[in-house]
Amino acid sequence: MKTLITGVAGFLGSHLLRDLLAKGKHVIGIDNLSTGRLAHIEEVRHHPHFHFIHFDVSDPDVLQLDSLLDVSEIYHLASPASPKFYQNDPFATIAVNTIGTKHMLELAKMNHAKLLYASTSEAYGDPVMHPQPEEYRGNVNTWGPRACYDEAKRLGEVLCYEYYQRFGVQVKVARIFNTYSAGLRNDDGRVISNFVNQALTGAAITVYGDGKQTRSFCYVDDNIRALQLMMEKKVATGEIINIGNPQEYEILEVARMVKEMCQSTSEITFHPLPKDDPRVRRPVIEKAKLLLDWKPQIHLEEGLRRTIKAYREQRVERVQS
Does the annotation mark 149 as catalytic? Predict the structure, then answer.
């Protein structure tokens, strides 16, 4: 049995890869390296149970790759996920979440394989229902800088629905909320990576708006565990499930927490809030508890300790090299 991970050199993909290989799985990874980095998978690049393909899943020739003909599980994680990257290349972001998703669904149909689609909490947009259950249909602006990601992910969900309903493809949709660890690129632009890098270097910690907007942060180990449970469990087939930590924090609170934990002298500065930036974000995870027997185990303070320690070590290694 072979497992395919698209976006394997990205943040989630590389963590999932290492975990699956440690469990003895045979894994094929695809990435076009637009935002993923080979450095993320370098330590397992030559693992005997891993085969890497530099390819774009939006290219229709992906369905002609002989090495994919016997995959039985597909984790479709390919997509820019940081606003910095998806706004820089909106058309590629739309393509990978629509055309690329259709290609992976076709592959799952051909192989009678299970497919997990990595959707996003951005499907809820700037929510008027709080916290957000899977039944909430969202409040998304189609005419703005975030729409290329939000709406493409939503259309990807529609494609999953149609392949499940019409062809019986074993589809599972994970709506992933903010996830973090030291594996995020230093230039990723997301909240935790920004704050930790700024605090460690003494740069100003940049908070957008008044910092009263909220987010819920899930450590990557908890996220990866949930994705594997979704893939394993038959009851998750044909379901959309929120994957995230229901503990909610104000952004300014997180900035102060990171500054204190880093023992940083950085100043906290305030900047204009980006257009369509959600004011609140917190998942209802009762469905994940019921169907997957899953809930996060790593609290933000512990996750931040691990993240800060790893970033510090990376900085020392860069200086020494």
Answer: yes
Cis peptide before 83 (omega within 30 of 0): no
* C-alpha of 285 from chain center: 17
- CA 57 to CA 74: how far, in whole Å? 12
The DSSP output letter for 132 is B
* DSSP 8-class letter at 68: G
Residue-wise burial string across 202-223, b where 16 or more C-beta atoms lie within 10 A, e elsewhere? eeebebbeebebbbbbbbbbbb
Both tokens of 308, joined, read 């800060």
Q: Residue 13 contacts by C-beta under 8 Å, 6 or more apart in sequence?
A: 5, 6, 7, 29, 31, 36, 40, 75, 77, 78
What domains lie within the chain, and their CATH numbers? 2-177+219-244+282-297 (3.40.50.720)
Catalytic residue among 75, 117, 124, 149: 149
User: Which pLDDT tens digit goes with each residue over 261-306?
Assistant: 999 999 999 999 988 889 999 999 999 999 999 999 999 999 999 9
211: left (phi over 0), alpha (psi -120 to 50) or beta: left
CA distances from 272 to 28, 147, 198, 206 (A): 42, 19, 18, 10
Confidence category of residue 318, pLDDT binned at 50, 70, 90: low
Supply the DSSP symbol for 148. H
3-state secondary structure of 30: strand
Report field, pTM of the whole predicted structure over 0.85: yes
